[in-house]
Task: structure prediction
Amino acid sequence: MSDFLRVAVIDDHPIVRDGIVAVIGTQADMRVVGASPSADLSAAADVIVLDWELPQLHGARAIASLRERHPKASIVIFSAYAGEERVRAAVEAGASGYILKGSPAEELLQAIRAAAKGRTTFGQGVHPPFARAGGDALTARESEVLQLLARGFSNAQVASHLRISERTVKFHITSLFARLGAKRRTQAIAIARERGLLSS
Result:
């Protein structure tokens, strides 16, 4: 990584896009390397700020497309809405952050810096997808992750097997811990086995 963070901005509204570019331009540790109204981005970036509601390729499909073409870039969603299913879909697709439009500029800047360091940030008013986790009702993806953990897979191996990022794997593990009331993966596996959540 260079001495500054390379940031690309994708938003189909010029006034929003230009505003983000202007804010990033005030930061000594960041440089805007691309600004686009669509997910058809060519510039190499460390972090991509992405609007969820693009007119053509949007949402989880836009994230998947960007991750395929820019596998080393982290993606921060910048959206006007943050419904529970939308946030979960963003995380499962590989997003590293979710910030609401209308948030203070500093919140977005902090999310960009955190994403570049491999951390995930949820802005004010955005509930992490595992926040209400409880009980045994695992999602299909959580169940897949659990089965692989029980087989001894590392986070990196799970990510490779499911073709998702390690960050996303960590989110699923955090969600599993919350649902199962576990603090460690060995404990989570033991509880899941007791509850019949693991295939034989």
Observations:
- Residues 38 and 56 are 8 Å apart (CA to CA).
- The helical segments are 14-25, 59-69, 84-93, 105-116, 140-150, 155-162, 166-180, 185-194.
- The chain has eight helices and six strands.
- The beta strands are 5-10, 30-36, 47-50, 74-79, 97-100, 121-122.
